[in-house]
Design goal:
Length: 304
């Protein structure tokens, strides 16, 4: 076997899935070799990895550089190929091949070491991200994706129980406030193709275009639901301004303007994203809400 699995990736799988994760990670070399043979690929450098995926730089038989992405099939990534196929490279990495049964993707090769996080000017980076997001959400969601309406209703169903797990009154107040914002919007969830995780590290430099998005978690819904990752990304830049609320609203207003969104709806669905993250934290055993999320909520409430 020529493929070596980074220790950090195995540790990540064990952290989240225990021995099943260890077993899946152990099977990665064989899985990679299978697609190298089936798709006529040869290795072309050291592997990269995220939290769950192993990415192998490869070259196709025609000499095209590509990236082979190996990942377990989960609710988050099961429809990744659907979204990439719909965008067909318009603002996103280009999908070259896929196998839905294993979640394996063959992708256009991008510059893995150069993301928007490398740009020193925060607002320049945000401008690039906003332009990409505007292109992505201009597409109608294809059939078969998870739908924001269902996810939002499930969040609302979980709020009462989650509130009981929070000892701080401040946290209980904000969870209820965010839930009230979602309750006002849940009947109009939207039908656009959302990325769901567009932050600076998910935008990489490329040859075909200067910058392209990667790693979508495709969702059918309102583009207003896609703002939060860019609001709390590079948080040190927000803190460095000395005025967190003003800095968050500067980003928020900038994106709302660039995407032509209704500020009140954008604020409401952003509170929905804060609620989603809070519910995940409670599910993971946290007894206090994330301070960054609370700071964002406090800022965007001014636009509700």
């Amino acid at each position: 076997m020529r493929i070596k699995v980074p220790t950090a990736l195995t540790e990540s799988h064990v952290k989240y899935d225990g021995e099943a994760g260890r077993a899946w990670s152990a099977g990665l070399p064989a899985l990679g070799e299978r697609y190298l043979e089936e798709w006529g690929l040869r290795l072309d450098g050291e592997p990269r990895h995220g939290v769950v995926s192993l990415v192998l730089p490869v070259v196709r038989e025609d000499g095209t550089k590509a990236a082979l992405k190996l990942q377990p099939v989960t609710d988050e990534n099961a429809t990744e190929a659907h979204g990439l196929r719909a965008w067909a490279g318009d603002g996103s990495v280009l999908l070259l091949d896929s196998d839905p049964a294993t979640g394996t993707l063959l992708l256009e090769r991008l510059e893995a070491d150069r993301s928007l996080s490398s740009l020193p000017d925060d607002m320049e980076a945000l401008g690039i991200l906003a332009e990409l997001l505007a292109r992505l959400v201009s597409y109608p969601a294809p059939e078969g994706l998870r739908r924001l309406g269902d996810i939002a209703q499930a969040m609302l169903d979980d709020v009462d129980q989650a509130v009981k797990s929070l000892p701080r009154e401040r946290d209980r107040h904000w969870m209820k406030w965010c839930a009230s914002a979602v309750a006002e919007l849940v009947s109009e969830p939207g039908d656009r193709l959302l990325h769901w995780d567009l932050h600076y590290d998910n935008v990489l430099a490329a040859d075909r275009e200067p910058w392209l998005s990667i790693d979508p978690k495709p969702l059918a819904g309102d583009p207003c639901f896609d703002l939060l990752p860019a609001l709390h990304n590079r948080w040190d830049d927000v803190l460095a301004t000395g005025d967190v609320t003003r800095a968050v609203l500067r980003r928020f207003d900038f994106m709302v303007d660039r995407l032509g969104l209704d500020p009140q709806r954008a604020a409401g669905w952003t509170l929905g994203r804060v609620l989603q993250n809070a519910l995940w934290d409670v599910e993971d055993g946290e007894s206090e809400l994330n301070e960054v999320g609370l700071a964002v909520a406090e800022a965007v409430r001014q636009r509700t």
